[in-house]
Design a protein that fits this description.
By secondary structure, the protein is an alpha+beta fold. The chain has two helices and 14 strands.
Length: 162
Amino acid sequence: MRRLLIFICLVGLQFGLLSSSKAGGWATTPISNLPDTIVAGQIFQLKFSVLQHGTKPTNGLPANPIRPELTVRHVASQQVKTFYAQQVGDVGHFQSSLQLPVAGEWEISILPLPFGNSEGEVYRITVQEAPPATDNWWYMGLAAGGLGLAVGMGWLIKRISH
């Protein structure tokens, strides 16, 4: 009986040590600022926080700072792009400049490296098509006509005054 009790205690201790080795080391990455309109091909700023254990803002340890990796995936084409963020402002606040080349639905996930486990959400955004380039040649015609009128009026005034 005594050996059985010792065996059960050792097995329990082993499972306790294994589970505690996986505890901690996780963070959440809520996005704090997402633009209302995102246009394909245009750069936009994405601001978010890294919260250790979901509550405390953190930049990591001095010897091992956080370097968030953003992965964006176009839902239709499965095109994937990776961006990195820099710490800005207060502790735990990060920002990244993103440029998504194609309109449509994109999914953004943030992995706050070196945290091994992350409760990172996948954010879905809609990127709008870039507006078509407009032809503004009529401005050139208006400018040329105005210049011609000014030169003609100058010539006419000079001719009348002689």
